[in-house]
Specification:
By secondary structure, the chain is an all-alpha fold. The protein has one domain. The chain contains eight helices and no strands.
């Protein structure tokens, strides 16, 4: 009688099911956080950015200042760095608070689009961003190629694009070459696409390091959702720069 139970195969199947559950959980967190961002953006745009006469409020002026964008960018870098460094010791609820708090802040930032852009343009660009995000994330999930080197190069390019945007906002302003800005947006879009694919691949590797620690896996899932949400918002904003002109 053959008593072979297929142990290694069964273990591999369990691992695949666990990875699938982990990734689905991450995307569920991301969708929930995206819902928070959308709700905050809608409420702020509807009730706080325009006065009774349809004129921009002080909050609207504040959100559109380059200095506000710079503080937000630095805050994101610091926040992700701080939470990432302490993730092992943080409670799961604290990581969830970070995720949904970050989503609310991004919703506040996105409210300027909801208030001052044609809603149909925003909806069209949203679905474009969702399709692009889904495609590059699927690529990162399925590819066997290690994307770390590509992601490092793409990150340097993306940082350069962000720096150029700030140089334009603070020093060039009205004199900016629109063709150059469109070119920067296109380059930034390619860079963030590569980064998103790598983030998805990195989440897979993270899961394999947490299979014996379900709570840690859940924390990485929520933290990974925040990172993917940021990438999606970057894709959306860059697509708005390229195709969202009224």
């Amino acid at each position: 009688m053959n008593n072979y139970s297929g142990g290694p195969v069964a273990a591999g199947s369990e691992m695949d099911l666990g990875l699938r559950s982990f990734m689905l959980g991450t995307y569920k967190y991301m969708i929930a956080a995206m819902g928070v961002s959308g709700l905050v953006a809608f409420l702020v745009a509807k009730y706080m950015l325009l006065d009774a006469g349809g004129n921009p409020t002080q909050l609207a002026y504040t959100l559109t200042k380059p200095s506000t964008a710079l503080m937000l960018t630095l805050g994101i870098v610091f926040g992700f760095g701080a939470v990432g460094a302490k993730l092992h010791t943080m409670s799961l609820n604290s990581v969830r608070v970070f995720l949904f708090g970050f989503a609310a802040v991004m919703g506040l930032w996105l409210s300027i689009i909801a208030a001052f852009k044609d809603p149909m343009i925003s909806v069209r660009i949203f679905f474009m961003a969702a399709a692009m995000f889904g495609g590059v994330s699927l690529l990162g999930y399925t590819t066997k190629k290690n994307l770390s080197g590509i992601a490092t190069f793409a990150s340097m390019i993306f940082i350069g694009v962000i720096v150029m945007f700030f140089v334009n906002a603070f020093f060039i302003k009205a004199g900016a070459d629109s063709t150059m800005m469109l070119g920067l947006s296109a380059v930034g879009l390619l860079a963030i696409a590569a980064i998103t694919a790598w983030e998805t691949q990195a989440l897979k590797r993270t899961y394999y390091g947490t299979v014996n620690n379900p709570e840690l896996a859940e924390k990485y899932s929520a933290f990974g959702a925040a990172s993917l949400l940021l990438s999606f918002i970057n894709i959306f904003m860059l697509l708005m720069n390229l195709f969202g002109r009224d």
